[in-house]
Amino acid sequence: MPQNKKEGLFFTTIVCFSMVISMSAYNLLLHGQFSLGNLFGGLVPGFIVAFFFDVLVVSIPAKKIAFALPVNKEKKLHMIIAVSSCMVLGMVFFMSMYGVFMQFGFTENFMSYYIGAFSKNLIMALPLQLLVVGPICRMILSMSRQTSWLKETNS
Known about the structure:
By secondary structure, this protein is mainly α. It is built from 4 helices and no strands. The protein starts with a helix and ends in an 11-residue tail after the last helix.
């Protein structure tokens, strides 16, 4: 887990990017629209929106909820699972809205499209975060601590 602001920003960026590219590919495949052009064409706007929601909307409430859950706070793995799960729920809530709006606009069928998108995204995003993206990004963060660029300086 990040230990300072630089590490937090770095970790958030790599997790956000990894989840956006993975979930974008997943959704394009679901809709039969996968191509590298479509994937990379939506990557920058998707990342910007996801980063905004992550940092400014989801992160603080998700962490508050996770720390309020009846989990063993002494066990790092329990807290990682709690925080990651709460983050995924919040991000899927907002990013499914974003995806439906970008694909269909705000029509009379928005809620039915949204419910379908939310459930399909949650089924993919939760295990992706807990089993693949989270562990890989924590490993990258751990390896990056070997370098001096993530360490806080007093200057």
